[in-house]
């Protein structure tokens, strides 16, 4: 099969070629619960750029060359002898984690903390290819209204945004405020989820005019340009006290300190993006009683919930399609901020 393969890291992201489009061996059924999916779409994520940079070398045990791509959807191509819930030809979306289902975390539905798991595209071969090996437990059948290429990025970007927005929505009331920092690939989904799950006023902060326009299209009530005065602007919109919840999809540079400054006392700061540091005197934590919440990608049931919202038209993805052979262009466009929403590779 054809695949876009990572052969070497590039810490400066300056090489002409990040991945190499080439022939590789077809995946094989090994375990009775294995499923081979013919890829209909593979999302291109900023995490993939971090992988190219080598940031994940200390986090996962993976040897180059390997295939990235952790946002995948397509059609069932082949099944192991123990698979019963899907059949060849079924359109499916893949939860990004493949687990055994036997550990206590799995049984509690806490997929991301399973003791026995694989993460295609992170610690094993992923979906920047024509075919992907996953597990039966990871698959959700798609309704006729949703095509694989249109929903693939929901499996990480959408699911991560959904998890954070769902957490925030549980304590947001009408008349309250929630700030979304970053209206890109994750943020534009988070805005829609907030609109679907709660009645708080949504304020979106971003440096990009394109992203702010997308935020408006997705239902933001207020937009604030990230021009250095965003904290003051948010405080003015919220009556001087800040927002009850801030969801930070950037998580690096000045975004962290500014996000905390936008959070009112006893409010919640949800950190989703990464790369920066949270530096806060302990006395400020005590006197403000702010809660800082980390967010991994969501669970299998949360992906089912997100697909229900998408099926009803309450959430949609802004996507830009690329051929699999153009994976380098997709990665470079993402790196240089030229992608509105999410990039998707189509084999």
From TrEMBL:
Similarity comment: family membership: Belongs to the zinc-containing alcohol dehydrogenase family.
Gene3D superfamilies per the UniProt record, alphabetical: Medium-chain alcohol dehydrogenases, catalytic domain, NAD(P)-binding Rossmann-like Domain
Enzyme superclass (EC): oxidoreductase
UniProt xrefs under SMART domains: PKS_ER (SM00829)
Domain Enoyl reductase (ER): 11-345
Domain of life: Bacteria
Natural source organism: Paraburkholderia atlantica
Keywords: Metal-binding, Oxidoreductase, Zinc
InterPro entries with a match to the protein in the record: ADH-like_C, ADH-like_N, ADH_Zn_CS, ER, GroES-like_sf, NAD(P)-bd_dom_sf
Necessary cofactors: Zn(2+)
EC number: 1.1.1.1
Molecular-function annotations in GO: alcohol dehydrogenase (NAD+) activity; zinc ion binding
Name by which UniProt lists this protein: alcohol dehydrogenase
